[in-house]
């Protein structure tokens, strides 16, 4: 039978988890084959020349560059070393240019010859995270138009509001109503109405491309666009372009009093959120402007800057 050390090494080298062991100062004293292979394939400094690497120092370097996961990892490892926690785990993204990847890091202490050491393992959890992401996206998406639903709109606006409060940035909201959509439904049938909503949803996607933007189905034939860190002037330019894009769809609506093809009315409001205000004030302002746009002939943008 092979020696116990050789057997143990062979076992650890067959494990797909990336495993290393560190001492109480953070120095790496052991890594398995999966750890080394990952470093070779990803140009990871912490995986190369591991015998001269201090894991905690590498985490601290990344933390100084703004890596939030590295900040949490360093704190978690130190909590285990200092016996604040019995163990620690962290799920984090590690995406490559070609694919999305997630890992779970676990930190577990052990003793050897009265000295304390710590096993750090990184397990690939990409398949599970992708499945969770798919379920989450389904809960956020309107089934007909394939854009955000009202529930996700509410959550996104709340988060964007807080961000703009913190960073003192403007926040714009547009509420879009398809002019005389009921006539379109009555004239051409509900299937044609659904196709119309799908096409408008596709157009809206092209006007909400940044992380701070969101287009959503607001309800029925109403849509909404959130534009974070966007002034009234820039928002107005975008919304006028959106109106033109909707007109360019040339969807028939022969009984409309505006023109014989689909048009829309937009209420636009921009304000600088702060702690004394609520996001409902922005919604109310955009809704008021939508009413004004419809009262004044439809097929245009009415706007307010507060």
Automatic annotation (TrEMBL):
UniProt EC number: 2.7.7.65
SUPFAM superfamilies xrefs: Nucleotide cyclase, PYP-like sensor domain (PAS domain)
InterPro entries (UniProt xref): Diguanylate_Cyclase, GGDEF_dom, Nucleotide_cyclase, PAS-like_dom_sf, Rev_trsase/Diguanyl_cyclase
Short name of one Pfam family: GGDEF
Enzyme class per UniProt: transferase
GO molecular function: diguanylate cyclase activity
Source organism, top-level taxon: Bacteria
Protein name in UniProt: diguanylate cyclase
SMART domains given in the database record: GGDEF
Any GO BP: cell adhesion involved in single-species biofilm formation
A GO cellular component annotation in the UniProt record: plasma membrane
Domain GGDEF positions: 169-306
Transmembrane region(s): none
């Amino acid at each position: 039978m092979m020696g116990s050390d050789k057997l143990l090494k062979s076992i650890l080298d067959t494990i797909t988890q990336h495993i290393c062991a560190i001492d109480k100062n953070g120095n790496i004293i052991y890594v398995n084959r999966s750890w080394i292979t990952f470093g070779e394939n990803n140009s990871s400094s912490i995986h190369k020349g591991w015998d001269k690497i201090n894991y905690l120092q590498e985490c601290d370097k990344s933390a100084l560059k703004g890596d939030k996961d590295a900040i949490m990892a360093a704190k978690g490892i130190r909590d285990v070393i200092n016996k604040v926690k019995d163990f620690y785990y962290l799920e984090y993204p590690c995406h490559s240019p070609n694919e999305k990847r997630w890992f779970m890091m676990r930190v577990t202490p052990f003793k050897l010859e009265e000295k304390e050491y710590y096993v750090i393992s990184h397990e690939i959890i990409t398949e599970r995270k992708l499945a969770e992401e798919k379920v989450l996206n389904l809960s956020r998406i309107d089934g007909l138009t394939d854009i955000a639903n009202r529930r996700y709109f509410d959550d996104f606006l709340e988060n964007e509001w807080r961000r703009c409060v913190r960073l003192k940035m403007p926040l714009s909201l547009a509420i879009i109503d398809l002019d005389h959509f009921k006539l379109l439904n009555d004239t051409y049938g509900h299937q044609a109405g659904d196709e119309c909503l799908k096409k408008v949803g596709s157009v809206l996607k092209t006007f909400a491309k940044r992380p701070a933007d969101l287009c959503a189905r607001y309800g029925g034939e109403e849509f909404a666009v959130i534009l974070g860190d966007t002034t009234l002037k820039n928002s107005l330019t975008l919304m006028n372009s959106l109106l033109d894009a909707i007109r360019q769809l040339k969807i028939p609506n022969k009984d409309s009093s505006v023109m014989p093809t689909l048009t829309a009315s937009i209420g636009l409001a921009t304000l600088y959120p702060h702690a004394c205000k609520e996001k409902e004030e922005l919604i109310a302002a955009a809704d008021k402007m939508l009413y004004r746009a419809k009262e004044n002939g439809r097929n245009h943008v009415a706007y307010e800057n507060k």
